Structure formats: structure tokens, C-alpha cells
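call fold(seq) -> C-alpha cells
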Amino acid sequence: MENTRVSYIFTLIRRYTQNVYSKQEAEEFLDSLHTQQKKLVEEEMDHVWEETLWIDSLCGSSEKHKEEARRLLKRINKKEQKLVIRPFLKYAAAIVIFLMAGLTYFLLPDKEKELQARNMVIETRQGEWKSLYLPDGTHITLNACTRLVYPEKFVTTERKIEIDGEAFLDVYADAEKPFIIHTQTMDVKVLGTSFNIKAYETDEQLSVSVKSGKVSISLPEAVFSLVANEELIWDKESDEFYKNKQNIHQAISWIHGGLYFNRTPIGAVVRELQRIYDKQILFEEGVNIKEYIYGAHENKSLESVLTSIQYTTGIQYRKENEVFILYK
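ret:
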């Protein structure tokens, strides 16, 4: 029984060095310094002391928790005046290290935890798509020229990521941890659902299309809720919103190599084609074209897409030294 208790203490010490313990466990560890087998604890502390010297640099991170460490050390001193100086100094230093490295993090508010979590950044190039799983099991597919930022671990009460571009997400359901997608101009909040978000900072329009579940969209001056087969389009230039029924398979046709435009400005269409085909497309100098593009297009080649647009809008193109010039 006694060996089991000592083994538990050793486990606590190791957990401290990995930043995974509670305040109650910290108290139990302090009590063990005086009530359990001191010699064995001292030997274990010798090992821990050697292993944790490198954490010294963390000890200046929080005045509040330094003060808590001082109070705990004062308690030890009052309880046991007969401790020899060398073990006591090791206990004191190690406890301060543990408090700074582990308990400090445990007591941090969510915002500070979020800042401390290491961010992962995934970017796609022109003509490139990527598919990956986030730490919570959420599956995400990124369209071309998209930037995704997410934490290595979701450590707060909310799962937050950042997107600049287009992505389809199948969010792992967790009622206690809402999933939030942050863009330059809006936030999308869900619990567990699948949906497409298109939010390129350079585009005139943003859109969210829901396949299943429900999402909440927060914009600077409006909040919208969407359910399955609904889509919201925000035209940033006119500051107009369009909420309508939408076949989600059209909105996510890009995943399977298709193209679909729903009242999309020609400028945004051109940027989309440049992202997909990695080709330069320009408007003829002095030409100001204001058109909205609709419908599905087979993207067998850039020329076939431009020809399809020409039939429906009258916007023509020519090719000069690998550059496509649009005119009317």
C-alpha cells in the first residue's frame, strides 16, 4: 500500500513536468513532502530537479503565480523546520518551476491559453487542393489559394480556426465546445455540421452554404442562421445580403473539379479562374465590365470555361503570350 502511494507521488511529479495536473494534485504533492517516505521522495526529486533545470526561464512569466508559489513555500517552511537546506532548496525551486510551467497554465483564462497554443498554418497554391483532419476530428478540404490557421490542440472552451479562402468542413460534433471559423469580415459558429465557406479577402462576395446541421453567421451589422440546403451571399461592394435555398452539391462542385457561380461578379470569377488554372487573366485596358455570372461550367480547360461565359454574357477573350485578355 505504501509503495503504491509513493508510486502515485512519483506519477504526480512527472505529470507536473508535462503540465497536466490539477490544483488539488498540487496540494497533495506538497503534503507528501512531509507525510510520506522523505528519502524516496528526495531521490525522485533529484531526478526531476536535473530534468527540469531548463524550465528556469519560465519563472518570470507571472507575478500573480509567483506570489502563490511563495505562499506555498512559506507553508512548507512552517510545517517542517527540520528539513535540511539542500533538499529544501530543491523542493522550493522545483515547486516554483512546476507552478510556473504547469499550474500557471492551468489557471490561465481561455484567451491566454489560446495565445499560448502553437498555431499550425496550412496554405494551398494556385491549382492546389488539400484535405486534412483537425485535432478534434473535424475534416476539412481546402480550395486553391486558401490559408488555414488552427491550434495544435483545442485547449479552450471554443474551437477556433481562421480561414482566408474557401473550404468545405465536416465539423465533429461537441455540444460543449462550439466550433468557430473566423474570417476578415465574419464569424461562423457551429456545434456539429457540414458546410462550405467562401471568404477570400480579395473577393467582392462572401458565401456560406450548409449541407447538414445549422450554422450561425455573425457579420458587423447582422446575424443570420442557416440550415441544410440554405445559402447566404454577402456582396461587400453593395452591402446586400441574399439568403436562399441552394443545392449544396452545386456549391461544393469545386471539390470534384466543377465550377458553379451564383450571381458572382465577373471580377471574382476571373480571380477564381486564376486560382484554379494558375493562368494570368486581364481585362483589356480601358474596358470596365460589370457582369454577374450564373450557372455550372465544366472546367475541362480554361478556354472552354471562357467560351461558355462568352456565350452567356458576350464577354470575349483572346490569348496573347500565355495571357488571357477579356473584352466586350
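Residues 16-21, 51-66, 79-88, 101-107 have pLDDT under 50 and may be disordered.
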